[in-house]
Specification:
Belongs to the glycosyl hydrolase 18 family. Chitinase class V subfamily. The protein has one domain: Alpha-Beta Barrel (TIM Barrel), CATH 3.20.20.80. The longest helix is centred in the middle third of the chain and has 25 residues. By secondary structure, it is α/β, with parallel strands linked by helices. The protein starts with a helix and ends with a helix. The protein binds 2-acetamido-2-deoxy-beta-D-glucopyranose (NAG) (5 copies). One 2-acetamido-2-deoxy-beta-D-glucopyranose (NAG) binds next to loops.
Length: 381
């Protein structure tokens, strides 16, 4: 048994450990920075080195992605991961200020059926959960993230609730047993709390999300793309004609009962391009005959900045959606720039959200948008 002094200092250390998840970074003397989550995903499959992450702009960095083995449901650590996981953790440990590290399981390219099967029995969920803990502890992560895109029906959604519950219980127990801080549990989710497309109507388990997750991260992007024959702002803050907007999505989460503080809003560092049918008809919703430059019409922010400069593009701030678009000849690109990112971050703050995240590191132009978002969050700038 310890003396009262050791007890008190232990208690203080615990308090510091438990409250230091969000606050760090450089702050000028005149303003007290807002706390909150400023996160970003690091795609392990790209060439952007983790060692060059400017950690003052972030609080949490996600390694993206790990996948469950389709037969065993244990996380499969590929030979690439075997190199990159320790590299990622090692690089970030060397950077100041420190950030928390999580790995994300799944991603847009992963097989949703595997997640559906994994989540369908208590036993398979436990194998998956145990494996996530084992990997997190082995490499020194502070949290785990699920990015199941997407639960396809109401059965998947109720199994997802069971998974969150079982996972959180296991994390609590493991922390108690090993005496380490509990691993964080977060999840990337659809921009809205319910699906009206891609299969039958279904809603996320808002109760389980509120109770068992540290936060959920609505992916407020990809609203429009190559599947459409008209131009669109793929991360529109507002849309007067449809529910496909960040304003609608975030409010649907709050309406569903998830506390605003547990929502971390997604921001894209990429845009979507189209080829205009008529260069003179070039607004949002203009007729398009296919995608423009980029990978299936996806252009990264730094590529957009360069392309706009090279092509002398006309750049427009669209007041309705609070987004940007540029056009030059038949090329049209919808994206976020400094002003729209600041507006979105202010929107997130005004609703009392827990923070924001970017997809993805390596896509910004000299940290321009990351810096703007961070300042807007911390100081309202
Ligand atoms: C997805 O996983 C399921 C179950 O393992 C498998 O049957 C299916 O072939 C997979 N689909 C693809 C596209 O790999
Ligand atoms: C998961 O881990 C716990 C704690 O170590 C252990 O008791 C349990 O048997 C494991 N379950 C599975 C399915 O691996
Ligand atoms: C938007 O969502 C609301 C429910 O949240 C629904 O009543 C309305 O019909 C939807 N509007 C459109 C255009 O889909
Ligand atoms: C887009 O395609 C739909 C159906 O294929 C068609 O009805 C519509 O007129 C097209 N719109 C434009 C702007 O070309
Ligand atoms: C771009 O615009 C500038 C000034 O408006 C002009 O001097 C230049 O020739 C233009 N370049 C191209 C590639 O159109």
């Amino acid at each position: 048994m310890g003396t009262p002094t050791t007890f008190i200092s232990l208690f203080l250390i615990l308090v510091i450990l438990c409250t230091s998840t969000v606050a760090n970074g450089d702050h000028p003397d005149h303003a007290k920075p807002s706390k909150g989550i400023r996160a970003a995903y690091w795609p392990s499959f790209n060439s952007f080195p983790a060692s060059s992450i400017q950690t003052s702009l972030f609080t949490h960095i996600y390694y993206a992605f790990l996948l469950p083995d389709p037969a065993t449901f244990k996380l499969s650590i590929t030979s690439d991961d075997q190199t990159k996981l320790p590299e990622f953790i090692g690089s970030l440990l060397n950077l100041t200020p420190p950030v928390k590290t999580l790995f994300s399981i799944g991603g847009g390219g992963s097989n949703a059926t595997v997640f559906s099967e994994m989540a369908s029995t208590k036993q398979s969920r436990q194998v998956f959960i145990n494996s996530s803990i084992e990997v997190a502890r082995k490499y020194g992560f502070q949290g785990v993230d699920l990015d199941w895109e997407f639960p396809a029906n109401v059965v998947d959604m109720s199994n997802l609730a069971l998974l969150y519950k079982q996972w959180r219980n296991s994390l609590d127990e493991e922390a108690k047993a090993c005496g380490k801080p509990r691993l964080l549990l977060t999840s990337a989710v659809y921009y809205a709390s319910e699906f009206q497309v891609y299969g039958g109507p279904r809603s996320y388990p808002a109760g389980a999300i509120s109770k068992y997750l540290d936060w959920a991260s609505p992916m407020c992007f990809d609203y429009h793309g190559s599947w459409e024959n008209f131009t669109g702002e793929h991360s529109a803050l507002y849309d007067s004609k449809s529910n496909i907007s960040t304003n609608y999505g975030i409010r649907s989460w709050i309406q569903a009962g998830v506390p605003a503080k547990k929502l971390v809003m997604g921001l894209p560092l990429y845009g979507k391009s189209w080829r205009l049918r008529d260069p003179k008809v070039n607004g949002v919703g203009a007729a398009a005959v296919g995608v423009g430059p980029g990978d299936d019409g996806i252009l990264l922010y730094y590529q957009i900045v360069e392309l706009n400069a090279q092509s002398n593009a006309t750049v427009v701030f669209d007041k309705q959606t609070k987004s940007y678009y540029s056009y030059s000849g038949t090329t049209w690109i919808g994206y976020d720039d400094v002003r729209s990112v600041a507006l979105k971050v202010r929107f997130a703050k005004s609703l009392g959200l827990g923070g924001y995240f970017f997809w993805a590191l390596g896509q910004d132009k000299d940290w321009t948008l990351s810096q703007k978002a961070s300042n807007a969050w911390k100081y309202g700038g």
